[in-house]
Write a structure and sequence with these properties.
Strand order of the largest sheet: 1-2-3-4
Largest sheet: 4 strands, antiparallel
Number of helices: 6
Number of strands: 8
CATH topology of one domain: Nuclear Transport Factor 2, Chain: A
CATH architecture of one domain: Roll
Helix content: 25-40%
Length: 301
Amino acid sequence: MIFRKKEKEVTPNKGKKLPVKKVGTRKKSVIALWLLLLGSVSFGVYKNFTAIDIHTVHEKEIIEQRIVDTNKIENFVKDFAKSYYSWSNNKEAVEARTAAIGNYLTKSLRDLNTDTVRMDVPTSSTVKEVKIWDITQNNDNFTVLYSVGQTIIEGEQSIYYTSAYTVVVHIDADGNMVITHNPTISSLPAKSQYEPKIKESDGTVDAATTEEVIEFLETFFKLYPTAAEKELAYYVVGNALEPVNSEYLFSNLINPIITQSGEQVKVSVSVKYLDNRTKATQISQFELTLEKDGNWKIVVG
């Protein structure tokens, strides 16, 4: 008979339970932590908005600095051109020109222009007109397009020329100016080929109304040149047309175009006058809006 030793059952050691410390949400330390967190978030938001505001103001300042009064640039270039393109065919005049243009040019450009008009020049030049056509800015440098009208005399021959040039003017922090790029030949804007669309009557106004409107216009334009404000009030609403107080003699209407627009009538018309002062013909063009309230009146001129 075999005897088996009964093994002792092993029970797991539960060990001691670790104490857990509960922290109440109303403890001073927790409140302090919450305040610290809220303060950090608020500060971050504040810094974010402050940074945006500062950036915006900075951009505004940059834009303001780019606004430059070009009147002084125009006058500077005009005065330069009058000196640069004027001379006489004698030593004193040539030397005076050289000294004068030195007041506008950098040293390197003064040296460059030393012999542009020589002592033995056979011509003389008088500037009649200088026009500024365009000014473009690149930081503190301004490219100026201008034209010069000058009379060139050589012997008994006199010829009038108009030429176009560009120069570059630099403006320093004190507002002082100097030409940094020599007059360079250029071209002026040419006549555009644009032609506006010719207006035509569209049949929206009947014959009786057309006749009424033309009769009104003829009556009005006969009186208009010399009519006082009180007289105009019978034909014009408000300040649609101001008194002109001039001696023009009405001749006729030229090609009146009359169209309907709701309760209003639109009129495009040329009016032919004789100018009693010059005895020349004067043709004025009007775009009018008329309304009828008992009688016709001009509401837009």
